[in-house]
Write a structure and sequence with these properties.
Length: 172
Amino acid sequence: MAILPILTTPDPRLKMVSEPVEAVTDETRKLMDDMLETMYDAPGIGLAAIQVGIAKNIIVMDISEAGAPAAPRYFVNPEILESVEEKKPYEEGCLSVPEYFNVIDRPEKVKITYLDYNGERVTEWAEGLYAVCIQHEMDHLKGILFIDYLSRMKRDQALRKVRKVNKMNASA
Ligand code: NI
């Protein structure tokens, strides 16, 4: 496995629309393994392939509680089939917008379908943090960052924060 560099905003690649994966192969699994290691190292709870510069519809996630055993989840070609009307606020962050957090409203339950690590079709309802995270990550596949839902002023604040963090990391 390998830790891959994570792109941060305003890298234009984060605006790309990702492409469907034709088949879940060993190459796909190798990428998912690397993405998971990259996500754990960051650390984060979700990562989309475009965040490591690969425009494919692939997401990895682990929303298990701190101290609980690792529970990695893998999503290839995820789609949202249904969303409930009720929305719920949650304070989101993103590895591509380091150290910036803000509250986003999203449907509190979504029915999703995707291929798992073995290429098996899974269809299920996601709720709670799972619903927040899968919607956030699926936005990445469409080139959308959570800060795109905020006002211009807040987005600029986020960009300034990212510039500062990147500068500090570069000089560290
Ligand atoms: Ni993100």
